[in-house]
Design brief:
2 domains; 34% helix; D-Maltodextrin-Binding Protein, domain 2; 5-stranded mixed β-sheet; alpha/beta; binds 1-O-pyrophosphono-5-O-phosphono-alpha-D-ribofuranose; 11 strands
């Protein structure tokens, strides 16, 4: 299906850890309307010359906006895509925001723990679907407590024995006396696209994907140099 150059493309951007990388990506593409984005409470930014609209969202909500077409495209961690299994097109690994989803437990428990003997666990996580799938594939019964943040606190106050959470530098685990026991998945930031937008705004969407692909490759090239 054809699209006109005037079609506005709405792009959902994640608040939080991925944001500095995302802003650098768009800056590299010559998009300057996002200056001040990181410090502002505004939820929509516009680049009228390029017919682009940027929405600022919590990372966990981005797949929902893109699946329903409230945003044509979005940037979100693979962790959220694996957890939510939304019906979106995922054309590009943006390669930044690398982290891992792991099982962690207090260092004291770790000293006497044997993961091969696990049959029943009580754990806290923001990723109940991934945790459930991982443990049930190993024949382990998991009692899952779903939380929205500061997961590392749960074992310290007896809410759960273990957590399933993202680790980037390992600093948060370390500062809270927790150690990693097993890795469940790896994650990097991904570009996602609404399936209908891919057809109805084909040219503009493809052009943006290619621009981002070039930026990612140029960045990888610079990192190798
Ligand atoms: C994430 C994650 C860990 C932390 C890991 O939380 O859930 O808590 O980052 O990072 P590190 O290995 O570099 O220390 P985030 O900061 O996004 O906030 P949250 O705890 O509110 O979810």
């Amino acid at each position: 299906m054809e699209s006109t150059n005037n079609d506005v493309i709405a792009i959902a951007l994640p608040k939080g850890r991925l944001l500095p990388h995302v802003l650098a990506l768009f800056k590299g593409m010559g998009i300057t309307c996002l200056q001040g984005f990181a410090d502002s409470r505004r939820l929509i930014y516009e680049d009228p010359y390029r017919c682009l609209q940027f929405l600022t969202l919590k990372p966990a909500d981005i797949p929902t906006y893109v699946e329903h077409g409230a945003a044509d495209m979005g940037i979100v961690g693979k962790d959220q895509l694996l957890e939510q299994r939304r019906d979106v097109y995922e054309p590009l690994d943006l390669r930044f925001g690398a982290c891992r989803l792991v099982v962690a437990e207090p260092a004291e428990l770790h000293k006497k723990d044997d993961p091969y003997s696990w049959s029943h666990l009580r754990l806290a996580t923001k990723y109940p679907n991934l945790a459930e799938a991982y443990f049930s594939s190993k024949g382990i019964q998991a009692e899952i407590i779903t939380l929205n943040g500061s997961l590392e606190l749960a074992p310290l106050v007896g809410l759960a024995e273990r957590i399933v959470d993202l680790v980037e530098t390992g600093q948060t685990l370390k500062e809270n006396g927790l150690v990693e026991v097993e890795e469940i998945a790896k994650s990097t930031a991904r570009l996602i696209v609404n399936r209908a937008s891919l057809k109805t705004k084909y040219r503009r969407v493809q052009a943006l994907i290619e621009q981002m692909r070039k930026q990612v490759e140029a960045q990888a090239e610079r990192a190798r140099a």
